[in-house]
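Hello again, I could really use a second opinion on something today. I've been puzzling over a protein and I'd love to understand its fold better. I'm sending you its amino acid sequence along with the backbone structure tokens. It would help a lot if you went through both lines with me. I've dropped the whole record in just underneath, so have a look.
***
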Amino acid sequence: MPESYNPCMSDAPALDFWFEFASTYSYPAAMRIAPLAEAAGVTLRWRPFVLGPIFKAQGWDNSPFNLYPAKGAYMWRDLERLCAELNLPFKRPPSFPQHTIAATRVALVALDEDWGEDFCRAVYAREFGEGRDIGTVDAVADIVSTLGLKPAPVLERAQSDAIKARLRAQTEEAQRLGIFGAPSFVTADGELFWGNDRLEAALAWAKR
């Protein structure tokens, strides 16, 4: 989808799904959003971004789940319960938050093609379903290869100046929209919903 795409230009209900690969609650959202959007008749656009600059603007140098240990302990237990309810595998990764720049740049490449959503789900499945590292170029290359693609040309495109600039612009757009965490959902009329538990409400608003 071109970056200039504007959901307001389409007559079909539309929803932008803003997600960060380091975000724990983006995992269940990413794994369930596509069939829910299809059932609702809502056009979905996947919008990867990075939370680091947004957190820094709020004076944080780490995830709030690490800055506030009680909140972090609750989050991990809550995610464990949620994944069990959704029949999603869950295993806490070795480090949190993980470095996500490489994976996010590849996601931008993939979402321009027909394997983007599969790649995003594969990243989340490895990170929070299997509890494995996704923060290195080698890990991202392995995920690409599991989708039947050759990693080298994909990684080369992901390292281009155009993709780097696009990720910066997309993160800046998230800030302009008032996004402060992930997952977030933005409707065609600019309504913002934050959190996996607001997904259904966002879809319902998009259909209004």
